[in-house]
Amino acid sequence: MDLVGTIPPHIGNLSFLVSLNIRNNSFQGSLPNELSRLYRLQILKCSYNEFSGEIPPRMGLLNKLQILFLNGNNFEGSIPQSLSNMSSLQRISLAYNQLSGSIPSFIFKMPTLQQIVLHSNKLSGPMPSLDFNASSLEYIDLSDNELSGELPMFDHLPNIQYLSVAKNNFSGVVPEIGNLTMLSWLYLNENNFEGTIPSSLLKCTQLESIDMGKNNFTGRLPPEIGNLTMLKHLYLSWNKFEGSIPSQIGNLQKLKLFGIDFNYLSGPIPYEIFNISTLRNLLLVSSNLSGHLPSNMGLFLPNLRILTLGGNELSGMIPNSIVNASQLFILDLSWNSFSGSIPKTIGNLRLIQILNLASNKLTIQSPEPRSIFSSLSSCKKLRVLFLHNNHLNGILPNSIGNLSTSLQMLKLHDCNIKGNIPEEIGNLSSLIGLSLSHNKLGGPVPTSIGRLHKLQGLLLYGNRLKGSIPYTLCHLGSLDTLSLSRNELYGHLPACIDNMTSLRNLDLAFNQLTSSIPLSLWRLKDLLLVDLSSNSLNGPLSLDIGHMNVLRGLDLSKNQITGCIPVTIGGLKNIAILSLAVNRLDGSIPTSVGELVSLEVLDLSYNNLYGEIPKSLEELSYLKYLNLSFNKLQGEIPSRGQFVHFLAASFISNNGLCGEARMQVPPCKGKKAIGIRILKYVSIAMGLMVLGVCLVFLSIKRCKRNTKLSHDTNSMALATWRRISHQELIRATEGFSTNNLLGEGSFGFVYKGTLLEGTTVAIKVFNLQVEGAFKSFHIECEVLRNIRHRNLVKIITACCNMDFKALVLEYMPNGNLDMWLYSENHCLNMLQRVNIMIDVATAIEYLHLGYATPIVHCDLKPTNVLLDEDMVGHVADFGIAKLLGDGVSLTQTMTLATIGYMAPEYGSEGLVSTRGDVYSYGILLMETFTKKKPTDDMFTGEMSLKCLVQESLALSVLEVVDPNLLSNKNDYAAMEECLLSTMGLALRCCADSPEQRIGIENVLATLNKIKLKFLKDISGR
C-alpha cells in the first residue's frame, strides 16, 4: 500500500484492536495521543512512514504492547520516560529517526525486553550502566549515533546474541565480556577504543562476526583467537596491532572475511591462512608483512574473490598456483618486492576486474612482454591494469589492443619499455586513464589514440617520441590532462586544440615545437596549468590570453616569443605561477600585472623589456619569487609590499634601475620632478573622478526611471528584501575575485560572498552583454519572488542598476549534484542519491501543482541541483522557466534548454509543458544512478542513455550503474531491487509522448515507496 495523510484521532475508538501495522506507507504528522486508548494493543508497527514530532509520552499507557516499531520516520526529541511502563514490551525499534538526548537507563531494565534497536539517530552521552540482571535481552544495536564515554560492564547480559555500538565516539578499554556465551555478532568499529583485545572475548565461542576496525587497539593478536571456530567475519583493520599474525587463524575454517590491513604487524603471512577454503576476502594492505607467499597458496582458495596484499615487504616470486583461485576479481600485490616473471597463466583469472602488480621488481619471461598481454586478453572483465614501476624491459606488442574493451585504467609507466606505441592501443575504447611515461618509447604518437573518446588522462612524458602532435588528439573531448613533455616532438600545436573542451592540464614542455601558439589555445577557458616551456615557439602573445581567468600556472619560458606582454594579461586573476623568461619579449611591463592578485611566482628574466617597474606590483601580497633580471628596465625599484623581501639578484643586468643601496643599484635622483609629475596626474585623475560621479548620477537616475516604467511588479517585490548596493557586492566578493567564483552559466557568473552581517551567500551576476541575460534576470525575479519551498534555492535580495544586475541567493556549501557524481573526491551512496532525487521531485511537484500558476523549470540537470550542508537537494536556475498562466497546460517557446535533458517535443516544436520537466527528471534520475551523462560520446546513432537503461532492465541493471554503488556487497540484493524500481520509474518519466508520462506527484509517491522498501530491506539484512 501507499497510503498518505495523517492518522485520525478516532483510531483510539478501536478498543478491541490487538495489532496495528501501517508500515511502508507515506503517513505524515504526529502520532495521535488517542493511540494510548488502545489498551489491548500488543503490536504497533509504524515503520517507514514520514511521521514527525516527538514520540507521544502517553504511549507508555499501552502496558500490553509487545512489539513497538517506529523506525524509518522523522521523530525527534528524547525517548519518553513513560515507555518504562510498557511492562510487556519485547521488541522496540526506533532506528532511522532524529532522536536526541541520552539513552534512558530504564530501557535496559524492562523485564521482558528482548530486542533494542536505536541505531542511526543523534543520541549522545554515555551508555547506561548495566549493573542489573537483563537476562531477556538478546539484541542491542546502538550504532551510528553520537554516544561517548567508556562501555559499561556486560556481565548481566547472559543471553545477548547481537551487540553493536559501531560508529560512535566511545573510548577507553573494552570491558571483559567472557560470560556472554551466547554472543554471535560483535561490532565495535569506528570508535576510539584502545588497549588490547580482551582475553575474555576469546571465550565467546559462539561468535560469528567481529568488527573492531578503525579504532586505536594495540598489542598482539592472541593465538587463542583460533579457538573462535564459528567465526565467519574478522575485521581488525585500521588499528595499531603489532607482532605477527598467529598461525592459529588457520583453525577458523568457516572464515569468509579476514581484514587486518593498515596495522603495524611484522613477519610472514601464515601459510595456514591459505588453507581456509571458505575465505572470500583477505585484506592485508600496508601491514609491514614480509616473507614469501607459499607456492601452493591458490590451491585451497576456491571461493577467494578479493586478495589485497599491497604496501608490505613481501618478496620472492608470485606463485603460479594463484590462478587456481579462479573466483578472484580483485588482486592487489603492489608496493612490495616481488621479483621474477609475471606468471603467464595469470590470464586464467577470467573474472579478474582489478589487477595491480605495480611497484615491484617483476620482469617478463622473454625479451618482449608479448606473453603477459596475450594472456591477459582472455580477461574480458578487466577494468584496471597497473604494472607500473617494474622491470618489464621489452616492447609493447600489438596484442595490447586485444585487452578487454572494458579496460578503464592502464598504467605502464617506469617499466623500461622500448619500441613504438602500437596503433592497436586505439582499440581500448573504454580507457579513462593511460600512463606510459618515463619509458624509452620512440616513434610517433599513434593517431589511433584519438579514438579513445572516454580518455581523461594521457601521460606519455619522459620518452623519446618523435614527429608532430597528431590532430586526432583533438577528438578527445573528455581529456582532462595531456602530458607529452620531455620527448622529441616537433611541428606546431594543432589548431583544433580548442575542441578538447575538458582540458585542465597541458604539459608539452621540453620538446622541439615551432611556430606560434595557436589562438585556439586561449579559447580553453577552463585550463588550470599550461607548460610549453623549452620549445622553439615564436610569434607574439595573443590579447585573448586574458580570457583564461581560472588559469593557475603558465610557463612559456625558454622559447622565442616576441612582441609585448599583452595588457590583457591582467585578466588572469587566479594565476599563481607566471614565467615568460628567456624569450624575445620587448616593450614595458604592463601595470595590469599588478592585478594578478593570486600571483606567487613571476619570472620575466632574459628578455628585452624596458621602461619602469610598475608600482602596481607592490600590491601583489602573495608574491614570493620575482625575477626581472637581464632586461633593459629603468627607473626606481619599488620598495613597498613584497619588494621588501626581494634581493638584488631579482634585478641584476638592468642598467637603468635605481633605488635602495641593498639592491646594488645607484640611488634615484629628481624626486622634485617626480613630485610635480605626480601632482599633474592627480589633478587629471580628480577631474575625471568628478566627471565620473556626474555620469554615474545621471545613469542611476535614468535607470530608476526605466525600472519604474518597465518593471513595477519586480520593484514592489524587491522592496520587501533588504536593499543591497553594487559596492557591497563588490566588497562581499573581494571585487568579484576568481577565488570566490563558484561557477559559470549561460548568462553570467556565480560568486561566493560574505555580506556585512557575516552571512555567506551566492551572488549570481548577469552578463548583460549576452543575449537573453536581461530577460533571464527578470524571469528569475518573477519566479523566485513569489515561491517559497524547502527544496528551492531561496532568493535573499537583488541588485538592479542600469548596467548591473545580480541576485543574492542562499549559499549551498556542498556544491551541485554534477560535482558529486563526477569528481574523484566525492561519492554518493545509494540512500543519498535516492534522497536527493526525492528532494528534486518534491520541488518540481511544488512548481507544477503547489502554486496558483504552474511553473515549468525547463532546464533540469545535475548542475542545477544544489546541495546544502545536510546534503538536501535544492533546485536552482530559473533563468529560462515558463509561467503557463491560469488554465494553460502548454505553450510554445524559443528558449534553449540543455541538449540531452530536454523533452523531444521541446526541441522539435518548441512545446513546453509540465510533462517536459518530467522527461528531464527521468533523464536526471538515470544519470544520478548510472553516472553517465546523456551527452556522453558512447551515445551515438540510436544508442542513448534511455536505450541503455531500457536494455539493462532485461539483462542486469547492475552492469550499467555507477560502480561506486556496488562497494557494499552485503546489500547487493536490496540495491538491485531498488535500482530496478528506480530505473523503471525513470523510463516511465521518459515516454516519448507527453501524455504517456507519469505525473510528478506520482513520481514522488513512487520514489518514496522505493526508498522505504530499500530501507526495510537493508535493515532486515
TrEMBL record:
The chain crosses the membrane at residues 678-700. One of its GO terms (biological process) is post-embryonic development. Pfam families: LRR_1 (PF00560), LRR_14 (PF23598), PK_Tyr_Ser-Thr (PF07714). Its EC number is 2.7.11.1. Residues 736-1015 form the Protein kinase domain. It is a single-pass membrane protein. This is non-specific serine/threonine protein kinase. It comes from Juglans regia (English walnut). The lineage of its organism: Eukaryota, Viridiplantae, Streptophyta, Embryophyta, Tracheophyta.
